[in-house]
Design a protein that fits this description.
eight-stranded mixed sheet; globular; five-stranded antiparallel sheet; 11 helices; alpha/beta
């Protein structure tokens, strides 16, 4: 996952919040910048390839962009025991190059987790006027976080969110204060008690309900952040792959992540298809069923401000209700998103 945003937007504050509230998830923080950067009260040396343990299983390192791929490889090694890698881009960085580096990685353990663009609710209108490239960065984002929402009147905040939505379309626009972003919106909690953690998260873990925890010392602050929404979908009947692709290519507003397994009503195709969606990045992976495994479609969709009833209705419409099997050609859309 890449966290970007203009200088002072609150990227490091957001990272600190994730590090404190990620419920045992071990995060590898890669700082694509130079200089002294304080992360969770730990001073990270500004030289290339400096790695510091944060004491909670997480690590932080500062690297030059040319060394990012090497650092990804080190953090992705099983012995590093890192669950999620978060790259904090420099406040002046062009996130497109970082995205290309992650998406183009040949490491099978590296999977792109999306671009989170952090916006200062108070300063962004003026900053974007001075730096038009910030609007271009918004168009690359998979999730826009409008931080410091308590510093502007409600009407100005609503207008800013509307302006951003006009630029990013269906991409979720999440308002918050003090960098508070729910970890469940970004990644899943690992299950360390089972030996198959690295292979697959359980469906129960994906359905883990959000519990808001108040932080000590902040009771007097104006409470201003959006809750994320999780929608589960199960079908014992196979899906029409064309309709599912239409749903995923034209997602409901606010959808950020989707994952699970889909079964398709296609002649001679008896495999399940693992599905992973982050923003506009979609991957399908055909897999064989395990012995005794229940052959049903199970999907979880996560976003901010989604219309739950609309999501359920559109998912119901992907179920194949006719008696006949579909032609194998109907899987062409799925194969388009399947790594070769």
């Amino acid at each position: 996952m890449i966290v970007a945003g203009f200088l002072g937007s609150g990227k490091t504050t957001l990272l600190n919040h994730l590090l404190r509230n990620s419920r045992g998830t071990r995060i590898g923080v890669v700082v694509n910048d130079f200089g002294a950067i304080n992360i969770d009260s730990m001073l990270v040396a500004g030289q290339v390839d400096a790695m510091v343990s944060l004491g909670n299983g997480c690590v932080c390192c500062a690297v030059d962009v040319s060394e990012l791929d090497e650092m990804f490889t080190r953090l992705a090694q099983p012995r590093a025991k890192i669950d999620v890698i978060v790259v904090e881009a420099s406040g002046l960085a062009e996130p497109r190059n970082l995205i290309r580096m992650v998406v183009g990685s040949d490491n099978p353990r590296i999977r792109y987790g999306g671009l989170v663009e952090v916006v200062d609710a108070e300063q962004f209108p003026a900053s974007s006027a001075r730096h038009p490239e910030l609007t271009t960065h918004l168009r690359l984002a998979d999730l826009v976080v409008v931080n410091k929402a308590d510093r502007v009147p409600a009407t100005d905040l609503a207008a800013l969110r509307q302006d951003i939505s006009a630029v990013v379309g269906q991409v979720p626009v999440y308002a918050t204060t003090h960098g508070r972003l729910e970890a469940g919106l970004l990644f899943d909690e690992p299950l360390r008690e089972t030996p198959r953690v690295a292979e697959q998260l359980s469906f129960d873990a994906l359905l883990h309900e959000h519990e808001h925890e108040h932080e000590p010392g902040h009771a007097a602050h104006r409470h201003l952040h959006d809750d994320y929404v999780s929608v589960s979908f199960t079908s014992e009947r196979e899906l029409d792959p064309r309709r599912l692709i239409e749903f995923l290519e034209d997602p409901p507003p606010g959808l950020f992540r989707a994952k699970g397994f889909a079964t398709f009503a296609v002649a001679e195709e008896r495999r399940k298809f693992g599905m992973h969606l982050v923003g506009r990045h979609l991957v399908f992976e055909p897999q064989h069923w395990a012995r005794g495994e229940q052959r049903v479609t199970q999907l979880v969709l996560i976003g901010a401000g989604m219309d739950v009833e609309l999501v359920r209705k559109r998912l119901d419409d992907t179920v194949h209700t006719a008696a006949d099997w579909l032609d194998p050609q109907s899987l062409l859309g799925v194969w388009r998103y399947t790594p070769h």
